Amino acid sequence: xxxxxxxxxxxxxxxxxxxxxxxxxxxxxxxxxxxxxxxxxxxxxxxxxxxxxxxxxxxxxxxxxxxxxxxxxxxxxxxxxxxxxxxxxxxxxxxxxxx
Length: 99
Hints:
Elements: E1 2-3, E2 6-10, E3 15-18, E4 22-23, H1 29-43, H2 47-50, H3 58-65, H4 83-97
Antiparallel strand pairs: 1-4, 2-3
Helix pairs in contact: 1-4
């Protein structure tokens, strides 16, 4: 997932621009979506995306029901490639574990 630049509100071609400067990779598309929601929450996003637990988000909850990937934050491991990445990984980990 390209998290270099993106929109936290609006989109796909206009809205609130954020620049996390991160690149994420996973074989688990549900885990990747959950981490993406956490990043949006860190940078500020819509009320709908900000409310409740990440795994309670409609799209993520349905994907877990279908067995498409991680069913909880306990199944997600973030691996940083350097210290700078470690800092954002800690923030993401805190967000995905909030209920």
